């Protein structure tokens, strides 16, 4: 493991690069984030925050490895960096220039998050990077390069300093700072990383935020649990609005008939691709017993590439510093 802590950088401040602003993630990258954070929490460690800045460096290195035919931490050839660039230099080039501990894992020949996580977990050096208690952020980059030797390439970058590009809670929890909350019950809707809507009579709760959708087949995923009895009333509506607050679509609606269910949703948003929209969750309840809706793991990003062709060779190559 190579950890970088250069004394000459004691006063350095990371600047978020332009390339990090539009960073999006496919379902396997987000699944890897869940796996590594579940693993860390099982081992008594804090979850990692997802850094767009580090993810840009990771994704570009994965692309370079496939495009130029190498699997190594040092850049052999690149569309983005000078030949010979070290992993911590790539991180700095994208804006992560903190004087702190840094590490990198790479892999080739595996498509899914579960496969690459298992490979790294079973390799002592990679496992040490994933369980390093000093790390606070992670960048994840998975690339499929048609015609390359191994097809799929993965890079994860780790750092001990949270930069401005981090995306709220890395374990899928909701961050109150990211959402506009309105409640007729005059209460905070987000607690312990989950949103609690409804649950009281004659109520109206609204949770919404602006999102810039990726240009390539964007998707919305979330988990909702519906609580209440047979006599409960209420409905949770999931809507897309324009920037003026006008409703463009109602994506889903849940009611008391869903009580006792935990529902995992994955919804295509291709008709709104490339647009800035408002994502809104609105719960309305009537008089008497009210249904309650618990919302978790809300994510907007690019799709899983299930339709991508598989590489002919399923060789696993994993390497780490």
UniProtKB/TrEMBL annotation:
Record InterPro entries: CAP_dom (IPR014044), CAP_sf (IPR035940)
Pfam families reported for this sequence: CAP
Coiled coil (UniProt feature): none
Domain SCP: 33-158
UniProt cross-references to SUPFAM superfamilies, sorted A to Z: PR-1-like (SSF55797)
Protein name: CAP domain-containing protein
Species name: Rubrobacter taiwanensis
